[in-house]
Specification:
This protein is an alpha+beta fold and about 220 residues long. It is built from five helices and ten strands. The protein has two domains: about 60 residues; about 150 residues, no CATH class. The radius of gyration is 27 Å and the shape is elongated. It holds the Pfam family DUF8127.
């Protein structure tokens, strides 16, 4: 086989190997979330409390529908709401995860009773500090990744997924511990794109070389 063909085969093989390594790196980056800890004042930074699964963010969360939003807005003014909401029994009110809702920058504790499409909603305005006190765990009781993120001030890998203690209190200081926005999925995507390009290039080289060898053999 001519030396030029040897070089082309070697180049194609190297490109495929490099692409595989890049793809594996991307999978590794995307597989383990990184946690960050943000110090916050619950009275002025109430949006940080939405890292807790008990708090629904009506501003940035998935759409709750106009009827549901109007029900909360009415209850926020009058203290309660009685009416109907389409698919209430299978929509937002079916989620029992939430105890609080952040609506227009204000926190409300709520209870909802659903019967078919009929909804009875009661809300009570809460301060950010009172909600933080209710949801926070002491630093010594926080998960290990959460403690590490708070104590080091750096990103910490959490192999078990997002922390079960997203709101942490340490001597009167509150921290919101959450996956770093876009820290993994975005990086993984950036790595996978060049990996695909490298695979295509390497595969093309190997195919061309194979055709040349066939022609010479024929």
């Amino acid at each position: 086989m001519p030396p030029a063909l040897h070089r082309r085969i070697a180049l194609g093989s190297c490109l495929v190997v490099v692409a595989s390594l890049v793809a594996c790196s991307a999978a590794g980056v995307g597989g383990i979330p990184s946690l960050s800890a943000t110090e916050f004042d619950p009275e002025t930074d109430v949006e940080e409390l939405t890292v807790a699964p008990e708090v629904y963010d009506a501003q940035h969360g998935s759409s709750i529908g106009n009827e549901t939003r109007e029900a909360f807005e009415t209850a926020a003014v009058e203290g309660s709401y009685e009416g109907t909401a389409p698919n209430a029994s299978s929509g937002f009110f079916a989620f029992e995860t939430y105890d609080f809702i952040l609506l227009e920058g204000t926190l409300y504790e709520y209870t909802a009773s659903v019967d078919g499409d009929s909804v009875t909603l009661t809300v009570t305005e809460r301060t950010g500090e009172s909600v933080a006190d209710e949801l926070a765990v002491p630093l010594e009781d926080a998960s290990e990744p959460a403690r590490a993120a708070i104590e080091t001030g750096e990103l910490v890998e959490a192999e078990g997924g997002p922390t079960a203690t997203p709101i942490v209190e340490d001597d009167g200081t509150y921290y919101a511990v959450a996956p770093e926005h876009g820290s993994n999925s975005g990086t993984a995507a950036l790595l996978l794109v060049p990996a695909a390009m490298i695979v295509a290039a390497g595969g093309g080289v190997v195919v061309v070389v194979g055709l040349l060898i066939r022609r010479r053999s024929g």
